[in-house]
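Researcher: Last one for today. Full complex below.
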Amino acid sequence: TMARVLVGVKRVIDYAVKIRVKPDKSGVVTEGVKHSMNPFDEIAVEEAIRLKEKKFATEVIAVTCGPTQSQETLRTALAMGADRGIHVEIPADDYVKTGPLQISKIFAKLAEQEKANLIILGKQAIDGDNNQTAQMTAAVLDWAQGTFASELKLEGEKLTVVREVDGGLETIDLKMPAVVSADLRLNEPRYATLPNIMKAKKKKVAKLTAKDLGVDLASSIEILEVADPPQRLAGIKVENTEELVGKLKEAGLV
Amino acid sequence: MSTELRHAVKQLYKTLIFIGREYPKGGIYFRDKCHAAFMKNKDVTDPAEIKMLISRGEYVVKELEALYRLRKYRTLRKRYYDSETFEETILKNIRYFDQK
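Model: Here's the assembly. Have a good evening.
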């Protein structure tokens, strides 16, 4: 069987940006800050595209949930080679309260709607760091799941997933349909070049709301405070080994 | 210069400027260097030489892609896999060593 792949992509603050907490501790500063596709999602998109290139998948549909700016991330996915995009528009105020539980319900509904049999997601978003969406999506759909995937092999109805676990690798066989979460070493994503970005402008992007899918965005989680991690104490430089030993003795460590 | 080559050169320039936006020393630094490099060769007429220069430019694009990819991989690996032992890293990447 050929796979019809749904890939989830999230717009996050760029991985290289130094995060600053807002003075009121309600969150982090996002205004005027560089955003890009979640790095694990890039890996997910790349894997989906490779499946299509190797003729294991017929269509790759990129999905994003969020306010208007989320569409930028869809454009990147399309530039990388996804066939079409779906933007589930969630207004900024509601989006702040949205987490893996709500997103997983949205993906589940879309998978049914689009008759997808494989969902590939990044293992976690570098802002939320929840590592829950893939697992929850599989649970909602009652599909098999292969998380922390570092290798994928599709043979008919069987999906072989090599998973990164503590201490090494685990290989499992899944029966399609399945949800997979991409780990860092699954592949090396291609760069979205300018010509591909131009070509991607012609690709279709559908807009929906959570309501259209019959998904309730209500959350039972409320963010109380966002704070900086404790400051690391500055180190001191010593001139030589004698001084080092002296300082260690002073601190009662030797 | 034929229209075809002229188009290829312009496309290369646009591609380089686009990918150079994330250059570690800054997009503006890169843009200036790129512009200077193209201007230095503006009087070249031999098609073979132009094609060679275009190839060199495409090589730079590939090098930049590799730079960004490696920088991102290393940052993420440090951020998320710092507790991983060296042996674990080798084990998990063994197939890359086989392929490359």
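The CA atoms of residues 77 and 91 of chain B lie 15 Å apart. The interface with chain A takes residues 11, 14-15, 18-19, 61, 65, 68-69, 71-73, 75-77, 79-81, 88, 91-93, 95-96 of chain B (CB under 8 Å).
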